[in-house]
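Supplementary Methods S3. Complex input for the nickel (II) ion-bound model.
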Amino acid sequence: MAVRPVRIYGDPVLRQKAADVTAFDESLRGLVADLFDTMKAYRGVGLAAPQVGVAQRVFVVNVPVEGEPEQRFAIVNPVLDMRSGKLTAEEGCLSMPGIYEDVGRAAELRLRAHDPHGQAFERRVDGYLARAIQHETDHLDGVLFTDRLSPLKRQFLRRQLDELARGEVPEGYHPQSKDGETL
Ligand code: NI
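Predicted complex, serialized as structure tokens:
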């Protein structure tokens, strides 16, 4: 298990469409373990494989869900549908340090996926977990949360994004992401 460096905005892997996982093997479980370690080290609450340079459809989240003891999930090959409602709340991304903006997302949806052992499951999700799952699934399609902002908002962020793309990561970034809101 190891902490892997988080890829920052401008890295082409963040714009790739990630491939379905076909082998539920030790290598996949090693990747999942590294995603958990890296998410924890960066104090994030969600992390997708492309964010550590691996273009595969895998992500992890760490979000408390009422009535459930386990709040850490590893999700493989997610399919989202049956979306309903809309909620706007602040999001940040470990690949875009320093940027936090309100994003509109479906309030509720159905998640169908596999766990890292190849077990298929489905469940309805809502609340912050639904938000986190939408943000991370976007990563698997090469979509970043800033893509979902209004053109005007994106215009305002242009300079900050260009700086990130040039490698000007704010000093002291690692591991100082804003607690609890960075996906
Ligand atoms: Ni993110």
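Residues 93-95, 135, 139, 183 surround nickel (II) ion (CB under 6 Å). The first helix runs from residue 26 to 41.
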